[in-house]
Amino acid sequence: MAYTPAPGFDELIHAPTRLSIVSLLAATAWAEFGFVRDSIQLSDSALSKQISTLEQAGYVTVDKTGAGRRSRTYVRLSPRGRNAFNGHVAALQKLVNVSVPDEEPAS
Amino acid sequence: MDPRQAQASLDEVRTREQQIADVVARDGTPWWYLGGIAAAFLAVTVSSDLDDLWGAGWIGLVLDYAVPVAGIAGIGGLAMALHRSLGVRPRRYSGRVLRGMVWLGAAFLVVYIGLGTALRLAEVSWDSTISGVAAVLVFLGGSLALRRNAGTESAPHRPRVD
């Protein structure tokens, strides 16, 4: 049975890999790219792709410092991303708590 | 989307929050960090006693102001270096870590102020240094205990190696 997601449910964040990334970032002020990569267990390219998607949506900001082997990339959740994440979690919580079926159940 | 899927997503959110808390609890107090804080604090306590001996003129100004300011700046710098080495700065500390830090801070202050006051009243020389050393030993011992406790409570962190 399908349920209507509560307001605040964010399709962009809900994708499993992005949910893991955003959840991790939500618990931090910032995280280094390598830390996120190792924590989520993604390849560099897979993480880059997801971070780019989130960055384009304005949900994360990316800062690069240094050059060459000393370069570091820091990722942080933007205020907009944090609001979207909080809204998404609230929507999930509402769905779990209420569990009221939709008027038009899906197949 | 059904409630079971929503619950699974919420579980993922909690897991990632806990992952950050575990990393900080387990890896957030390396020896260079603890040693740096201990050294900075001891420098301040020793300077306090030296100030009693040679506190006149510019030396007094250095001991009164420059050493404490440098000590605080050094501890701040160590915190920044710690976050860089961890690769993450937590948004907030978990209740377990916070409780440990509060207890440790309270024990540190009780030893430093209590012993220091008793030694000063007894007119023991180098009272600040002696009580500072005792407080630092409490700090190091408590930090070690907290780290061991965190290590047994949290799951092992195994970064993937490609």
Structure description:
The complex is a heterodimer of chains A (107) and B (162). Chain A is α+β, with helices and mostly antiparallel strands. Chain A has a single domain (11-94), classed as Arc Repressor Mutant, subunit A (Orthogonal Bundle), CATH 1.10.10.10. Chain A contains five helices and three strands. Chain A has a three-stranded antiparallel β-sheet with strand order 1-3-2. In chain A, β2 (60-65) and β3 (72-77) form a beta hairpin. The model of chain A has no long low-confidence stretch (mean pLDDT 89). Chain B is mainly α and 162 residues long. Helices cover 82% and strands 2% of the residues of chain B. Chain B is built from five helices and one strand, in the order αααβαα. The longest helix of chain B has 30 residues, at 57-86. Residues 155-162 of chain B have low confidence and may be disordered. The A-B interface holds A 1-3, 5, 9, 14, 16, 19-20, 23-24, 26-32, 34-35, 38-39, 41, 43, 72, 89, 92-93, 95-96, 99 and B 1-3, 6-7, 9-10, 12-13, 15-17, 19-21, 84, 86-91, 159-160, 162. β1 (28-32) of chain A pairs antiparallel with β1 (88-90) of chain B, so a sheet runs across the interface.
Q: Which structural class is indicated by helix and strand composition of chain A?
A: alpha+beta
- CATH architecture descriptor name of chain A: Orthogonal Bundle
Distance between the termini of chain A: 7 Å
What is the number of strand segments of chain A? Answer: 3
Low-confidence stretches of chain B: 155-162
Structural class of chain B: mainly alpha
Radius of gyration of chain A, whole Å: 16 Å
Which whole number gives the mean pLDDT of chain A? 89
> Which spans of chain A have pLDDT < 50 for at least 5 consecutive residues?
none
Count of separate structural domains of chain A: 1
CATH superfamily of chain A: Winged helix-like DNA-binding domain superfamily/Winged helix DNA-binding domain
CA-based shape of chain A? elongated
Helix content of chain A: 40-55%
Write down how many β-strands of chain B occur, each being a DSSP E stretch of 2 or more residues: 1
Largest contact between protein chains?
Answer: A-B, 31 and 25 residues
Order of helices and strands of chain B: HHHEHH
The number of helical runs of chain A is: 5
